[in-house]
Amino acid sequence: TEDFLVVEVEPETHNFEATWNAFAEADSVDGVIGFSEVAPAGYGDFDLKLIFANDGYIKVCGDAGFDADSMVAYIADQNFAFKMLADIGAQTYSVWVTPEGLDEILLAEAYEFKARDEAVDSINYRCVKMSFDEKYGGNVGMVEITDFEVSSMPTEAKEITIPEYSMSFFPNPMSISATIQIHNPSTEDQIDLTIYNMMGQKVVNLFSGYQRSELHSYMWNGTNSNGQHVISGIYLLQLRSNKYLETIMIEVLK
Questions:
Q1: Residue 169 phi, psi (nearest 5)
Q2: CA 219 – CA 202 distance, rounded (Å)
Q3: Can you tell me the distance from the alpha carbon of 47 to that of 44, in angstroms, rounded to the nearest whole number?
């Protein structure tokens, strides 16, 4: 529950791996997690960092500010597992995230450390910074960080694997709205995302078309194609492409 937490770690001067778990307490927070060579006075002093941004996405700081190679959304009460591989010699780092119930996703590949007059020689601090200033979006809620571990790694490069198709729906059961996350590994597949009732009748089509090869998020507010709220019951969420078909059973509670 600290506003700004700085912890000294065993100095790392080559490649190292950091892992931790994170839990957002709200849909819109402003929580920055990172590492630095010198004890920071604020999150702007972090050399490596990622953010639970108040626009609902997780991002990593690169040359042009906070960005991500894959769009990973978060909502309140969702768990994430993070892994960061840092190469101090190359002054770069990569970040993977595993959302609850999904496969590991490459969030940022070979992002550069924060630009400084001199290169970073070692990492000596890990840090967490929360912001509650209204001028930054009136953010509420904390990001709870647990199981933080840092360990030295061999210097050889890590092989990056691209995950296959994956789909999740949360919360399930839902009452007001839910988030659907899809990882599409191919830009050549046309995606069709549709909700059906148990009679096989189409309730609403949430997306049809081509996507970039990355993680995508969709919201469903429990309405049909006419904008009417559906009744409580069991429904089927189906993801279909020319190479893949997956169906998830979902429950609506009013």
A1: -140, 120
A2: 17
A3: 8
Q: How far apart are CA 28 and CA 202, in angstroms?
A: 32
Q: Among residues 165, 146, 143, 127, which one has the least CA distance to residue 48?
A: 127
Phi, psi values for residue 44, rounded to 5°:
-65, -15
Cα distances (Å, whole numbers) of residue 23 to 144, 232, 253: 5, 29, 25
pLDDT in tens, 63-97: 778 988 888 888 888 899 999 999 998 899 999 99
DSSP state of 186: -
Q: How far apart are CA 219 and CA 208, in angstroms?
A: 14
Instruction: Name residue 58's amino acid.
Output: I
Contact present, 61 and 111 (Cβ < 8 Å): yes
Distances (CA, A) of 200 to 89, 157, 207, 221, 223: 57, 49, 18, 20, 17
Q: Give tens-digit pLDDT for 213-223.
A: 667 788 899 99
Say which amino acid occupies 145: I
The beta strands (E) that lie in 156-232 are given as 166-170, 178-183, 190-197, 202-210, 215-220
Beta bridge partners of 99: 80
Query: Which tokens is 78 given?
Result: 């969702």
Instruction: Say if CB 200 and CB 158 are below 8 A apart.
Output: no
DSSP state of 156: S
Three-state secondary-structure class, residue 142: coil
Q: Which residue has the tokens 């919360």?
A: 171
Strand ranges (E), 39-134: 48-52, 57-62, 65-73, 78-87, 92-99, 105-112, 123-130
- Count of beta carbons in the 10 Å neighbourhood of residue 130: 19
Claim: this prediction has a pTM higher than 0.85: no
